[in-house]
Amino acid sequence: MRSQYAEPMSSDLTIPAELLPRDGRFGSGPSKVRDAQVQAVVDAQPHILGTSHRQMPVRSLVGDVRRMVAELYSLPDGYEVILGNGGSTSFWDAAAFSLVESKAQHCTFGEFGSKFAQVTASAPHLEESEVREASAGSVALPEARDGVDVYAWPHNETSTGAMAPVRRPQGIQEALTVVDGTSAAGGLFLDPRETDVYYFAPQKSFGADGGIWFALVSHAAIDRIARVTSSGRYIPATLNLQTAVDNSRKDQTYNTPALAPLVMMRAQLEWMLDGGGMDFVTSRTDESSRRIYEWAAQSPRVQAFVTETEYRSRVVATIDVDESIDASAITSALRAQGVVDIDPYRKLGRNQIRVGLFPAVDPDDVTALTRSIDYVMENLAT
After folding, report:
1. Cys-Cys crosslink for 148: which of 105, 276, 330, 360, Cβ 3.0 to 4.6 Å?
2. pTM attached to this predicted model
3. Does residue 174 lie within any of the structural domains?
4. What's the DSSP call for residue 145?
5. Is the model's pLDDT at 248 over the cut of 70?
6. Considering Cα of 37, then 43, then 46, then 48, what sign does the dihedral take?
């Protein structure tokens, strides 16, 4: 558990400038925003900002984003990109109303997977959910069960830095796989054919603000949505996924969206696709994660929290710090010099740091971060 100190010990510690990252933003979400994305928002004035989402400039923007997401994932025939307002937390409610017919199975191994499980568990129109749980730092995997019509799990658990494989379980027949890709999308490889619904918000790899969700949906999921939403079940309009499907096909949302995140996301997708698409983004996250985990393996003062290498996230690294050094003192010293947002997920209560490794993060800055942390730890230990 986290060491307790009266106050941070590092307020006067100065890290040599040559050790510091050029860009010190390592947040696990919201994440680093590139300058080009900010400029894109400026350039969106006056043609997009302040324009009705029913008009062509905004619909063209939405259409661009949908097309680019489909291109990034090389979406197979029968799949399409839909979107709606409210972020991933709203999508959980929408899924409980519009995707789950009777019973869901959830794999939970951190905060965000467990929150979706709580949603379906409390839905009065659904049967009791089955929950397969693993301790923080490991993963739980789905397994076919009679009566389950939705299998749900996170691709990447942002709170713990654990990464689960995305593979359709054998023997699930007509059941759907519904995968939370919020901190994985745009940074981890995905074969869309292994999922029926892969949903995410854009504030991680896509470097945009939250408040909107996207989903890659299969033909089977489209059919399920149509059947459930026409069954007579009460569904609020903002949580009706058929409404989202219908509006997305018109390149719009049911109600007015925030436009700046869409502009930022389009700029990020342009950068991703111009760089080489999925190969480009995963090569960057693979390299950043290789550097930080190799550093953790070689350092006597830190170690990777996720012990099984195949489950170590390539977009969010959680690193335990030796109990002799207060991790909050490390983050305090770094924040004083512009290296920010490497604090651990608060509910884990561990003496650790958490580092966002999304594609916009330069792998060389990850190396510089490790050197800066080494410097701070050496000085705190003396």
Report:
1. 105
2. 0.94
3. yes
4. -
5. yes
6. negative
